[in-house]
Specification:
There is one protein chain. Helices cover 37% and strands 21% of the residues. By secondary structure, it is of the alpha/beta class. Helix 2 links the parallel strand 2 and strand 3. The termini are far apart. The model has no long low-confidence stretch (mean pLDDT 94).
């Protein structure tokens, strides 16, 4: 069994001071939401063994804030900055995940961007949580997390429509669940 966690970066500023999209930083809500998802992750194992992160500032900040909220309860994963994740389409994301077979983590997290992450999540979901699949069909929102399981022990066997959506969670859903 392999578990894949797709985490979209948190909410960002509209424009970076440099004018470069890759330099956009998290805004105030993004900081709160990344921390909330990190706190949730820290309470809900299994935890990632490997985290592949887009080199964009907002993706790195999302992971850093999430990790800060979970690091006291979670063994540290290996971290890889993967340039191909920036602007990746579903085929490129699948390729990046299959490359994980080299180090073979049981639980892999990818921190990246829409529209590719959302399209990828939709293409992976072959079965699983019906309510989560319905919610995910609309959007993978900022700080949204989609978790899939694959009935394989080899990342090279991961393919479209073969994933079981275990859960879909977002800061908005966490707030609704807590009654706030």
């Amino acid at each position: 069994m392999r578990r894949l966690m797709l985490l979209r970066h948190a909410k960002t500023e509209t424009d970076a001071p440099s004018g470069r999209d890759q330099d956009r930083r998290l805004d105030e809500r993004g900081h709160r939401d990344a921390a909330a998802i990190g706190a949730w992750l820290g309470r809900n194992p299994p935890f990632p063994d490997l985290v592949q992160i887009s080199p964009a500032v907002r993706a790195k900040q999302t992971w850093e804030l999430a990790w800060d909220m979970m690091k006291d309860r979670v063994p540290p994963p290996r971290i890889e900055l993967v340039p191909e994740l920036y602007g990746a389409d579903p085929a490129q994301l699948l390729h990046a995940i299959r490359l994980a077979s080299v180090t073979d983590p049981r639980h892999l997290m990818v921190v990246g961007h829409n529209p590719g992450m959302h399209e990828f999540a939709l293409m992976l979901a072959g079965s699983g949580d019906k309510a989560g699949r319905r919610a995910l069909s609309d959007n993978l929102p900022t700080s949204g997390l989609a978790v899939f399981e694959f009935a394989t022990n080899d990342w090279n066997d991961v393919s479209f429509h073969r994933g079981k959506l275990v859960l879909f969670v977002s800061p908005k859903l966490l707030k609704q669940a807590s009654g706030h």
